[in-house]
């Protein structure tokens, strides 16, 4: 029995919508990373980027369980001496919930050139409105 090896130009990409309303931020991010990598397809191979486009709506209504909202912090470095910055997830979810979702998905994607291409297919929105109706996205159940 032979194994099928998809080529990059033969990959067909679909569009999916994930609704984060009332769901855990990490679980939605894990499912989005799964779809972006293409692991839901029977033709998945790790060396070919065969993932689909993902739209995440209602990011501001995603929940953090336990005391993560008060205790968890997002850290980044500016590149300058003493440039370590931090922001609590309480502020991040209140002001930039779509960025919080993008950060969570980015942590679940490989840090490679292929992973950077996969992150370009992720779109996150705070509310339920998005501008990709022309692509006819399909609702994906978690």
Question: What attributes characterize this protein structure?
Answer:
Ribosomal Protein L13p, Chain: A; 6 strands; 142 residues; two-stranded antiparallel ribbon; 4-stranded parallel β-sheet; alpha/beta
Walkthrough of the structure:
The chain has 142 residues and is of the alpha/beta class. It has a domain at 14-64 and 97-139: Ribosomal protein L13 (Ribosomal Protein L13p, Chain: A), CATH 3.90.1180.10. Helices cover 29% and strands 18% of the residues. It is built from five helices and six strands, in the order βαβαββαααββ. The chain has helices spanning 25-37, 68-71, 89-95, 97-106, 113-119; strands at 15-19, 53-57, 73-77, 84-88, 122-124, 138-139. The chain has a four-stranded parallel beta sheet, with helices on one face. A two-stranded antiparallel sheet has the order 3-4. A hairpin with a 6-residue loop joins β3 and β4 (84-88).
**Roughly how many Å apart are the termini?**
33 Å
Helix content: 25-40%
Count of separate DSSP helical elements: 5
Order of helices and strands: EHEHEEHHHEE
Class computed from helices, strands and strand pairing: alpha/beta
Share of β-strand residues = 15-25%
